[in-house]
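If you are new to this repository, start here. Below is one unmodified record pulled from the training split, so you can see the exact layout before writing a loader.
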Amino acid sequence: MYDEFKQSIAAQLAELSGAPVETIASAIDLPKATTHGDLAIAVPRLRIKGNPVQLAQLYAEQFKTDSDVTAVVATGPYLNFRINRTAFTHKVLGAVHAAGEKYGWTDAGAGKRVIVEFSSPNIAKPFHAGHLRSTIIGNFIYKLHKANGWDAISMNYLGDWGKQYGLLAIGFSRFGSEEELVADPIKHLYDVYVAINAAADSEPAIHDEARAYFKKMEDGDESALALWQRFRDLSIAKYKDTYARLGIHFDVYSGESQVGEGMARAMTMLEDGGLLTEDKGAKVLNLEQYKLERAVVQKNDGTTLYLTRDIGAAIERYEKYQFDKIIYVVSSQQDLHLKQLFKTVELLGLPYADRFQHINYGLVKGMSTRKGTVVFLDDMLQESKDNMHRVMRENDKKYSQVENPEHVADVLGMTAIAVQDMSAKRIKDYDFDWSRILNFEGDTGPYLQYAHARLCSLERNCGPVNLDADVALLTEESAREIVTLVSRYPDTLATAMQTLEPCTVVQYVLKLSHAVSAAWETMLVRNQPKELADARLLMYSSARIVISNALSLLGMEPVKR
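And here is the target side for that same chain:
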């Protein structure tokens, strides 16, 4: 958005300083505050001999202003530039309306493919609130890559294999109910899993039965696999309902069970590469020299483990998808496991070993329903929805204008949870706080939705938007702030693409919403002269588009009422 202005400044500064145009252009920044100027450059970055403060003063005196760059001021070693605000505002607001929901998008990743693996719950264990972090962070990363032109594939790699499924089968034969399984498979299988584990405390032989059952599964026993397949199919159907509620779609449902001959090939490659040692019949990968401990890849009964299946999955995925990058969105508790996986892929000499990336995140503390039990995600979403519905009902007049209050309450509830989750850097643990979640004020999800809905209302009541409005009338400092923030959305996405931090976008859209709120009382649209009203409505409409785009990128449905 600032490129033309940067090039104009760089061309003239190159003549004055002798520094290359490219060096100058890349050193021109957007200042954190616009008090001194719209663009700034630190003179030391030009690598010119001399006193930076004196050089800044000299260049400011010699610089010739024009229709693009209207003023230059030296502040210490910095040069600050004021640009033609009318031309800039016209360009920014025009670009927003021309691109619409794709404002901020680029084609930087065109021709590249990325797999983003996220969510990945374990069948028979609760799809709990902790999985929510992987799900919403992963969905953001997937959408961000799509917005940057990548061919992105969202993959859900289910935990659907291992001895626990032997335990589950034994448990179902004792405690299972066909009726309850069909009604709510995830909850019932979890209840069965808890019951059989409790029974195994007093009957250790249950674990031997479970191991034997899982060995039958690995050996391809049809009856053992049929029951497991049923558990898996019913669970996936239920998961899809939950994901639909969250507005999330997966291109691929994979799982540990789906890893085929890639696993056997991985074992052969590990053996042939001399990477394995034997320990009491088990096969072990020793990564201690890399400070990554020892990892068992095959038990003494011949069954495989998590790491073996992940290596096999990595090989099969590359052969099938030819990815340029694969991102695993998994909690920081799995840091060691992912480091072991990536190091093993490297030691195997696979040519795509540098394409693996782990995006980790911290834990959510204090996350329980008010009943204090294990939190199933569905229960948490329902509780958030009910609380939002209750808050909405407190204003009868506004409530009566909402077309589908149940759905809006659901969206507000999910936005509340997601914004709390994504407000800080991923790696930080945070305390789950219902009182903060339900607040419509401050830096919360409901506040963002309210800001968007209020702007939608303004357009409904004062539209249509005049794209040819005279933006020279937007002279207020609050208008300057809004336009500047709107112009920075593409740069915000570029930064987010570098860090893969959702908080970059959350903090940006909160700042924009606060700027709109600050202008709301003084920069009126209703009952104003038509030319002024048109200019302000165009500005507010542009802010509305950007807030909507940011919410959508974060995986939230923007509400209009």
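Two things worth knowing about this chain: The mean pLDDT is 92. DSSP finds 22 helices and 13 strands in the chain.
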